[in-house]
Amino acid sequence: MQFQNFDLEYYQSQFERTVECNLADSSVECVNIREWLTDAEVHEFLQTPLFYPEVNGFQLLRRRIAALYPKATEHNILVTVGASQANSMVCTTLLEAGNEVIVVSPGYRQVWGIAKNLGCNVKELHLDPDNDWAFDPHELESLVTDRTKLISIVNPNNPTGAVLPAEARRQLVQACERTGAWLHVDEVYCGTELDSAKLSAEERASFWGAYDKVICVHSMSKAYGMAGLRIGWAVAAPEVIETLWRRHEYAVIATSGPSMKLAEIALQPEKRKLLLDRQRKLSREGHALLEDWIGQQGGLFSVSKAVATSVRFVRYHFDTPSLELAEHLRKNASLLIAPGIFLGAEHHLRIAVGYKLDRIKAALDRLGSAAAQLQHAGNLKVGSLHA
């Protein structure tokens, strides 16, 4: 069986250190240790022993994570090496060759790729760019069968930034209840909502508790600006956590003790609020700058409204394939942007906006100049794609 590469991550790891401007990432500008720790917390951190830590995660860290989920306890939590390890273990624990798996598209294609490599039949539930990236409930009904083992979603969505409405959440849960499928929800962007007042309490909430076979995943990377900690977690029923824990021991033994200590400090209520507020401020300013820029591009680009995340999935209105366009930008403008094809949607680019404004502006200037050069050279067929 041919191995399915993780195309997006492979592309980034090849080139992210080779360009002058990188907006291919999916997090906010990350904090450094000194800027968010008090002297007392620095001292506390420096006392962290470098012996093997608790394999399933520091107990206090698991308790602080559990406090974020209604009626969860430390026994519902497994601390992992980022959300990526949690996602991987969910797949390798639950799936085997021949299983049906449903993923949303566009989306972060980790589960899509792992399931393919396990020999699963992977189906895509398409999000509509002309309807605020909503899915068609009739398509969901047509995809789900008695053989469906897992429905996997990312909410808020990477790359679109869309948040599932309450009715769509219920439709997904009902589809799982009807067939007995597992529901896996990657929630690494929970906490990145740009204006929580515009969302209902249900839309802001985790899927945890919505269904007895739900597994939720989160991390310190996106909402907290701590991607380098490589700390994530799975939230599930205690017996599921025990099963995942056994795989965790084979894969990594444990996560990093110093990283867990920093996450433990970060998830104190006051510290957590500080980090979330910082991330949202960066994201709001970046989203606004991008929207202003798009308005000045003469119809070459458009974008759906921003709801959450520190990325935007920008649509361009010419025929160049997204990887070809991304490669033109990399080679001719020293700018790295994620091509939409690696996320399941052609004629889009995923652009990170959670950085300082001068960095974003410099990158957008390069994108605009490169597009203008292509247009001047006659390589852009503007208007051939509908807005």
Descriptive overview:
The chain is α/β, with parallel strands linked by helices and 387 residues long. It has 2 domains: 7-31 and 272-375, Aspartate Aminotransferase, domain 1; 51-271, 3-Layer(aba) Sandwich (Aspartate Aminotransferase, domain 2), CATH 3.40.640.10. Helix content is 41%, strand content 16%. The chain is built from 14 helices and 14 strands. The strands form 3 sheets. Strands 2-9-8-7-6-3-4-5 form an 8-stranded mixed β-sheet, sandwiched between helices. It has a 4-stranded antiparallel β-sheet with strand order 10-11-14-13. Strand 13 and strand 14 form a beta hairpin. The chain is globular. Mean pLDDT is 95; it is low at 382-387.
Secondary-structure element pattern, one letter each: HEHHHEHEHEEHEHEHEEHHHEEHEEEH
Going across the major beta sheet, what is the strand order? 2-9-8-7-6-3-4-5
Query: Which sheet architecture does the biggest sheet show?
Result: 8 strands, mixed
Number of helices: 14
Indicate the CATH class of the largest domain. Answer: Alpha Beta
Name the CATH architecture of the largest domain. 3-Layer(aba) Sandwich
- The coarse overall form would be globular
User: Beta-strand level of the residues, as a percent range?
Assistant: 15-25%
* Rg over alpha carbons: 21 Å
Let me know the average pLDDT: 95
CATH superfamily of the largest domain: Type I PLP-dependent aspartate aminotransferase-like (Major domain)
Ends distance: 39 Å
Low-pLDDT stretches: 382-387
Share of helix, binned:
40-55%
Task: Give the CATH topology of the largest domain.
Answer: Aspartate Aminotransferase, domain 2
Q: How many domains make up the 3D coordinates?
A: 2
The secondary-structure class comes to: alpha/beta
Strand tally: 14
